[in-house]
Task: inverse folding
């Protein structure tokens, strides 16, 4: 009914199909983007924490030099919680990992609201039933 009142009943099937396609693409791509942003934030926080650990303490704790950090992170041998155990008194960055993700989500929601307000019915002279 929404599409028919905006665009006319004649092409409502094709219009609805396009809206479903856009919705499906958004439901598949959106979470991937948000997960990627969260991963980037987590990696950034972990690298900042590792930068505060002395080289010798890192070697004795994790059994590998800092030059192998990428492999250790991939194997989940180095995590934020494990690095925090080496650095007592250091603030935990975990509650702030989702900040950029949530700001991005809020921005995308704002764009969606703006786009919805920009949708206007088809002019009466072009409207076909």
Result:
């Amino acid at each position: 009914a929404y599409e028919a009142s905006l665009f006319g009943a004649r092409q409502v099937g094709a219009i609805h199909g396009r809206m479903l396609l856009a919705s499906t693409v958004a439901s598949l791509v959106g979470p991937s983007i948000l997960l990627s942003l969260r991963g980037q934030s987590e990696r950034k926080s972990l690298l900042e924490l590792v930068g505060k650990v002395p080289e010798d303490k890192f070697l004795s704790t994790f059994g590998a030099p800092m030059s192998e950090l990428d492999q250790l992170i991939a194997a989940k041998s180095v995590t934020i919680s494990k690095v925090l155990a080496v650095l007592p008194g250091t603030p935990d960055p975990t509650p702030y990992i989702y900040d950029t993700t949530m700001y991005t989500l809020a921005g995308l929601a704002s764009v969606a609201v703006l786009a919805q307000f920009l949708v206007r019915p088809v002019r009466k002279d072009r409207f076909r039933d």
